[in-house]
Amino acid sequence: MQHFKTLSSYLDYLELPRPEHPMLSVFNSKGEGHLPCPRESSPPITNDCYSISFKKYIAGNLNYGRTKYDFTNGALIFISPRQVLQWDKSIVFEQKGFSINFHEDFLKGTELSQQIKKYGYFSYSINEALHLSPKEEKQIESIVENIEIEYQNNQDAFSKEIIISQLDTLLKYANRFYERQFLNRKEISSDLLEQFNMHLTEYFESGKLQENGIPKIEQVANELSVSQRYLSDTLKKETGKTTTEHIHLHLIDEAKNILLQPNKSVSEVAYELGFEYPPYFSRLFKRKEGISPTEYRKNIN
Fold first, then answer.
1. 68 and 134 fall within a common domain
2. What is the 8-class DSSP label of residue 264?
3. Looking at 136, 161, 184, which one is the last position of a domain?
4. Domain containing 114: what range?
5. CA angle at residue 291 from 289 to 296, to 5 degrees?
6. Which of 61, 114, 121 is nearest to 91 (CA)?
7. How does pLDDT run across 146-192, given as a tens digit for each residue?
8. Number of Cβ within a 10 Å radius of residue 100
9. Are residues 164 and 199 in the same domain?
10. Are 54 and 98 within 8 A, CB to CB?
11. End-to-end alpha-carbon separation of the chain, Å?
12. CATH of the domain at 241
């Protein structure tokens, strides 16, 4: 897989103009009509840059996953360094849109360099893009225009600080809008929770737990056609519990059933549940239930 270490090499690959700044590029088009993707298609690639883009898709194969979205005005997409990218030659955009790309080193020494890692949407797949309402779109466009003004001006001692401040504001608004998107898609969130529970139930009942061990979050997310971070955020919004906590609850429920069998030791129960180390199972059980597996068995009996 091809990897681009610098912003310039990545933009060259995309067949886009060289940036005004070695670690930052801003493209902001307000034109009319349709715009094909600069590079017609690409096999999987990675780079060391963050990307924030707003586009409206007219045609082409860009998988938005299994859901229909609330707004068709446009999609705000966030890409983090070393995230795998791929697209086909039929994608066509509206000409209106923007793309901000910056190397991860551009943020070094700033508070944003740590804060940006806390924004879950940089871990989302393309099918969990942020879909903006017209009002939200105008707010984002206003911030991008401020960034573009600083980008196009002659660089001085204040330029980087001002641009990073505007980027920070943009990301905070995006975080707010994602909160809205989760709330507005309550039905979709409930559907994902139901599918998640059904998947775990099938996994446990089919004997896969004994064959393959405790299900991995990445594996479950792939089965549900979402990213790990999106799955965890959605479950957290819906139930207050993360993906890991849900898996642990299923394990404890299953453990209770097996503990009813008096001929099996606690260690055997742990191994049957996919735990490599029985003490870890006992600690988890006690943390969730307040008593040890042995005490639970005694109480039931």
1. yes
2. S
3. 184
4. 2-184
5. 95
6. 61
7. 999 999 988 888 999 999 999 999 999 998 988 777 666 655 556 78
8. 23
9. no
10. yes
11. 58
12. 1.10.10.60
- Write the CA distances from 211 to 35, 89, 203, 208, 220, integer angstroms: 50, 42, 10, 5, 16
Distance, CA of 34 to CA of 39 (rounded, Å)? 15
pTM of the model: 0.63
Instruction: Retrieve residue 32's tokens.
Output: 């009319």
Q: Note whether 121 and 76 are within 8 A (CB).
A: no
Distance CA 102, CA 118 (A): 17
Q: Both 151 and 49 in a single domain?
A: yes
Please check whether residue 162 is in contact with residue 150, taking contact to mean a CB–CB distance below 8 angstroms: yes
Residue with token string 């979205």: 69
> In the prediction, which pLDDT does 48 show?
94
Read off the amino acid at residue 267: S
Strand 49-55 and strand 75-79: the pairing is: antiparallel
Sign of CA pseudo-dihedral 244, 246, 251, 252:
positive
* Residue type at 254 in one-letter notation: E
Q: Treating both helix axes as pointing N-terminal to C-terminal, what angle do 243-259 and 228-239 enclose, rounded to 10 degrees?
A: 70
Domain final residue pick, 184, 219, 237: 184
> Cα angle vertex 144, ends 142, 148, to 5°?
120
Radius of gyration of the chain (CA): 24
Task: Fill in the amino acid letter for 213.
Answer: G
Alpha carbon distance 132, 53 (integer Å):
12
Question: 135-138: long-range contacts (C-beta < 8 A, 24 or more apart)?
Answer: 136/173, 136/177, 137/54, 137/73, 137/74
Segment 137-154, tens digit of pLDDT: 899 999 999 999 999 988
Amino acid, res. 264 = K
Residue 126 and residue 66 share a domain? yes
Sign of the Cα pseudo-torsion (92, 94, 10, 120, in order): negative
d(CA 301, CA 288): 20
Query: What total of structural domains would you count in the chain?
Result: 2
In this structure, the strands spanning 85-87 and 42-47 are: antiparallel
Closest CA to 101 of 162, 16, 214: 16
- Measure the CA–CA gap between 121 and 114, rounded to whole angstroms: 15
